[in-house]
Structure formats: C-alpha cells, structure tokens
Amino acid sequence: MLDHIDPVFQQAVFSFEEDFDHRPWVKIMETHWVDSIYASMIYVVVIFGLQWFMRDRAKLDLRRPLVLWSLGLAIFSNLCAFRLWQELFLYKNLYGWKSTMCEADIGYSGVNGFWSLLFVLSKLPELGDTLFIVLRKQKLIFLHWYHHITVMVFSWYSYPLLVAPGRYFILVNCSVHAIMYTYYALRASRLVRIPRFINVSITLIQMSQMIVGVVVNTLAYYYRSHGDFCSTTDRNLHVALLMYSSYFFLFAHYFYQAYFVRAPAKPSPKPALEKESNGVAYSNGVHANGAKHSNGVHANGVNTFKID
Questions:
Q1: Which of 11, 142, 161, 298 is the most exposed place for a label (fewest CB within 10 A)?
Q2: What are the domain boundaries of the chain?
Q3: For this UniProt entry, which segments traverse the membrane (predicted)?
C-alpha cells in the first residue's frame, strides 16, 4: 500500500523507497565492485564452455522458461523506468536539468536511489540471457556478451563513486529494456506475430540510447571543465564515453548487417539419392565409392540402373 503522498512532489511514495539509505550500499560496492570482473570471467568460461559442450548435441527448446524469464525482466524494467521517469521530471521541474545530471543526492536517495540500486544489482542475473542463446544453439555475437559484461562492470564500478550522470545511464537502459524484454516475451510466447519494423525500431532505440549517453557525459565534462560542480570523475567520464562510443559503432554495424546486407543465396538442394538392390546410394551417376556409371553399367562392369 502507498504510505503517503510526498508534499513537495505530489508523488506516491512507498515506505521501502522513502526509507532507502544508499550509504551502506556504497560501502559494500566500494569493496565488492571488483567481484563483477570475477563474475565476468566465470561468465565467459561458462558460455563458451557450454557452446563447445552443445556443438554435437540437439538444441533445447526452452520456450516456456524463456517466456517467463523475459516476462520477469520486462516487468522489472517497466517498473524501474516508470519510477525513474517520474523522478526525473519532478526533480527537473524543481531544480533544473543541470542538477539532474550533476547532483548525486538527487540520484542516490529516495525513489531514484532504491530503483538505481536494483538496476545495478540486476546486471548480474541478466547474464542468464546468454544461457538461452547457447542452449538453444542460436548465434552468439560479440556485441551480446561484450555489452552484458561492460554494462555490469561499469555499473558496479560507478555506483560507489556517486556518479550523478549515471541516473541517465540507468533511466535510459531501463526504458530500452522495458521495450526489449516485452518484445522478447511476446516473440517467445508466439501469441502474436510481430512485424519486422518492430525489430528495426528496437535496434534504432538501442542505438539512440548510446547517443544519449554520449551527450550527457559530454555535458558533464563541459560543466567540470568550466569550473562548475558535477558529481563524477574525469576517469569515469572517459570510460563512459569510450564505452558508449563502442556500443554505438557495434550496434550500427549490427544494424547494417541485419537489415541492409542481403544473406547469401542458399545452395540448390542435392538430388535425391536412389538405392541399388544392394542398398548402396548413388547420386548424379556417381557411386558412393566414387566410381562413375555409364548407360546403366557400373565402372567395374556390374550392371545397375541408370541415374538421370
């Protein structure tokens, strides 16, 4: 139940949001953010080990688990995005856009702080996405696992630094995931037929996320370089800009390959094999052992049927 309406923002607030204290979590993440690197190493070993293990095995269906997995992440992402968008506009109206980018207290306490922490922690279980790709023997591209690893490590690394521009990183990522995982859940459920333009639109939205990241971090760098306060570090800004730029180029390359490059023509199917009375297959007049036929006579002089 809702406990009260915040008198300043006229926003419904739950007690677990209002009472959230980020300070203990900052101390925890200061010590344990490096665990995200260890988790990434284990993740890489597991996914490529499983890929090797599955190479000669039949793919698993996993459609129902995939629906539930995607639906769970879709619900979380939609709730996260909804609450953070509310907070963004409320604080913007009260303090202005610059404060939403540079004031850490706005992003780490209350409603925004609670959902931001859940977002950061959620990057670890989200690695499970890749298990579905590997076990269903779908194509695992570099962009997929690179994106998972770098987002998790950067989120865990940035949290204890009280990086104010991170609220935009979290907000936009939750918003994109809300759309993306809802799409995944619907596609896996096969309840509706999803038009191709939806696929294209989601990729474009993912690319726009990178543009927002570059713009916000560039503005934060501009404020700091002109002597204004902005709660971040130069190193974090440099890493963020490098990371967002790499995402943009990788997504742009994926977009081009997926929607503009024609797939190579499939080879024509091989002619059906016919069998001799002794059960040996022939094709186009060539015996299984490589000997040719001519007018129904095998190369070794044994009569057989003619293959046209």
A1: 142
A2: 4-259, 269-308
A3: 37-54, 66-86, 106-124, 145-162, 168-186, 198-223, 235-256
